[in-house]
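Hi everyone,

Forwarding the result from last night's run.
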Amino acid sequence: MIHEVDEGLRRLLDESGLEASGVEVVFDAPTRDWAARRSAPTVCVFLYDIREDAARRGTGAGEVYDEDGFLVARRSPPRWFWLSYMVTAWTSRPQDEHRLLSQVLGTLVATDTVPERLLTGTLAELGLTVGLDAGGAALDAPAASDVWSALGGELKASLGLRVRAPLAGISRVTAPMVTEGLVVRSAAAREGEEATPGRRLRYKEVSDPGPDGFAGPRERGEAPARRRRGDRRP
């Protein structure tokens, strides 16, 4: 999920014109060594904190059906997480860095979600909203000065960005559907005699009685009649 959020942010920033102007969007840690190797205008989106949004934790399980409408799996609900990023601009002049950072800020505050068309992988499959909070006060996230200190670099103008994204639940495949009835064979009556060929049986519905109460196997696409409380079978 995290790499899919990264890709969504990269696409969002590229749409603002960064890619067309030759600005590279990276997700590296902006350490002192990294900064020394940088040669092109760059916007760095550094992920430094991941925390679960426990208030949105769900319970139970959802059901997954195949094209024929049969239950094939059960999936636990998604877990929601806050991803905290520190966004910085890197050029040869502070004025250009501030201009870049202003362009990024304008793009991020223009929407409170990552557009659906930019989502990939499990984020696209889930169809859930990926929220954005640019420049907000994240009381439970580390301060920017603490992050720079941990990276061993000098304090630099940065934009705080938080993304709330779902992590897909775990799917557990259900037992395969029984599509064939019980095979019944009679034992040999006497020693040396062969048993009669087996016959595959399926319980018939009350609305379709037969001479022996059984029928052949039902086709996969045929839906069984619903049983009601109080119904009895012969």
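The chain has a mean pLDDT of 80.

Cheers,
N.
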